[in-house]
Amino acid sequence: MEPTLPYGSFTTADQPGRPRVGVARGDTVLDLTAASASLLPEHAALFAAGTLDPLLAAGPEAWARVRAAVTGWLVEPGGGDLAPELLVPRAAARMRLPFAVADYVDFYASEHHAANLGRILRPGTDPLTPNWRHMPIGYHGRAGTVVVSGTPVTRPCGQLRAADGSVAYGPSRRLDFEAELGFVVGTPSAPGRPVPLAEAGRHLFGVCLVNDWSARDIQAWEYVPLGPFLGKSFATSISPWVVPLAALESARVPPPPRDPRPLPYLDDAGAEPPWGLDIRLEVALNGHVVSRPPFAAMYWTAAQQLAHLTANGAWLRTGDLLASGTVSGPGRDERGSLIELSWNGAEPLTLPGGAERAFLQDGDEVTITARGLDFGEVRGRVVGWGA
Ligand code: MN
């Protein structure tokens, strides 16, 4: 497992009321709130509150200085002369939501995912809508229901439309997961000033894992004509660890070719560094890996999403969370949602022991990780409505 030195917010059993900023390396978490007080006093104020918000707002020069110091302590030979009380066993760290989520936007950037949903929901038509290759499609989600990994997810209730056209209110019968990456905004931007592609790295701090839980039956009935609403807003889970983009330099790869060529504000042809990321996700259902979605296949990058999000003059706030959209690859075992894996229920998955799943049942646990890179995990268990 390659160390990424991700940042998180944690407490310990002996001090449950005192959140601290931590940096993970293997089985250990460095208490950066405590370490910075003596070893990095010029930046200690960034960590005093125990959340990532001040660090996110501090901007790329501060991010680089802090990461250089932390790398020196935790990675470089001879640098690890840290007092033992600054190091906490990772298993003993109680992870919190790492930052205050400002606005939450969910995109739809995987061509394979969008085309699969098109084939399932609109058979006989072009699987991609006419706008799809011209812009990163997205919608504004609900920031207040973003929860940290480990938080139970209550099966949502909502309006459900039966095959005979009757409508009733009840628990979703088609609860799904969506495996995504989330890009965390650090530095805000100015009103009326779109963020060009070349400046994305000054605004984006890091990346976390996202499970964008989705109630497909509620969604299918409500989404015309304004898009996703209650079928999405009941919960979105994120990993407690935010991997700084600086840790992902070796994962950068050119994104797939685009056709047609995007408008100039979205055209990243030849841009350096590229914003594609060769990260392989793994989705486990009740401990059994059911999918390995490849992030390198994503059509639109986070830099393009940032440029598009601000193209109308809207501005960024510290803590904005931009989810990539469900990550799906071309292979059957690379699909990042159950609606694709089970082809809308027509081809249920068979789990070890013989249990079948078209959609999630109460008690099911979904865990998303990144192969070979320390992103931690985003994990959530479904609990029944009213349980
Ligand atoms: Mn999503």
Write up what this structure looks like.
- The protein is α+β, with helices and mostly antiparallel strands.
- The chain has two domains: 89 residues, SH3 type barrels, CATH 2.30.30; 280 residues, Alpha-Beta Complex (Fumarylacetoacetate hydrolase, domain 2).
- It is built from nine helices and 26 strands.
- Strands 6, 7, 8, 13, 14, 16, 17 and 22 form an eight-stranded mixed beta sheet that branches. The protein has a five-stranded antiparallel beta sheet with strand order 4-3-2-1-5. It has a five-stranded mixed beta sheet with strand order 9-26-25-20-21, with no helix packed on it.
- It is globular, with a radius of gyration of 21 Å.
- It starts with 6 loop residues before the first strand and ends with a strand.
- It binds manganese (II) ion.
- The site of manganese (II) ion has 7 residues, from loops.
Taking the sheet with the most strands, its summary is: 8 strands, mixed
- Number of helix segments? 9
What count of domains describes the coordinates? 2
- Give average pLDDT, whole number: 97
Q: CATH top level of the largest domain?
A: Alpha Beta
Termini gap: 38 Å
Cα-atom radius of gyration: 21 Å
**Distinct small molecules:** manganese (II) ion
> What's the β-strand tally?
26
Which superfamily, in CATH terms, is the homologous superfamily of the largest domain? Fumarylacetoacetase-like, C-terminal domain
- The CATH architecture term of the largest domain is Alpha-Beta Complex
- CATH fold description of the largest domain: Fumarylacetoacetate hydrolase, domain 2
